[in-house]
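User: What would this chain look like folded?
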Amino acid sequence: MNTDKLRVRVWRSVTRGLVTYDVPRYESQTVLDVVTFIQRQLQPDLAYRFACRVGMCGSCAMNVNGKARWTCRTHVSKVAVNDELEIAPLSNLPVIKDLVTDMSDFFDKWSRAKGQFSGSRSRHDDFARVSPESAQRKAADAGIECIGCGVCYSSCDVVTWRPDYLGPAALNRAWTLVNDERDTQTLERLRAVAGDAGCHSCHTQATCTERCPKHLSPTAGIAGLKRMTMKAAREGDL
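Assistant: Here's the prediction, encoded as C-alpha cells.
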C-alpha cells in the first residue's frame, strides 16, 4: 500500500473556484475514491453524483485534469501528474453545486432530435423481427450502447461555441433510430437534425469519439446523418 499524499484541486461552488485538499494515495485508487474520501473525511458538504461505482451508469462523469471521464473507472495512477489532480464539473452544462451539473438541456436536445422510438405496432401485435445481418441493423448496433453520461457533450467544442447545437449524444441517438426499420418517423427525425444547429454544424473533430467511455463513434453517426439529410433534400423531402 502506498501512503503518499495526493494533492487534489476540486471546483467548489461556494468559492467559485478550486479548493485544494491533501488525500492519502493508495494502490488501485480511482478518482471517484478520491472524491468520496474528500466528502466523507474532509468536506462533508461537497456535492457530487454517482450511483453504480462500476462503470455501468455513467453518472459519476466529471472533468479530470481537463478531460471528461467516468471517475469510477479512472485510476489515479493513469491521470495524476506529479501527484496532483484537478477535478471539476462537466463542461457545457450549468452547475447545480460543486461537481453536480444540470443535465436538463442535454436530454432536452435528445427530444429535439426526435430521440424517442415511434413504432406502428401495438402490444396486441406480434414482435417485429429485424435481421441482425442487415446493413441498417449493423449501423444501429454501432451506436446503440450510449447511456447518456454526457462525456461526449462536455468534450464537444462545437457545443461550447454554439450552445444551441444538438450535440453528439442526441445526434448519435437520432442515427440509431433512422436505421431502425421498425421506426415510423424517419423523415421527421431527419428534418429535426438537418437544421442550423443539427448534424451539419459538426466540425468532425472526433473528440466525442476519442473520449466516449463506451467506445462508440458519434462522429461516424453524425456523418451518416449528413449523408441522409442531403439525400432527403435532393429528393425534396426536407
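The domain at 5-101 is CATH 3.10.20.30 (Ubiquitin-like (UB roll)). If you want, I can go into more detail on any region.
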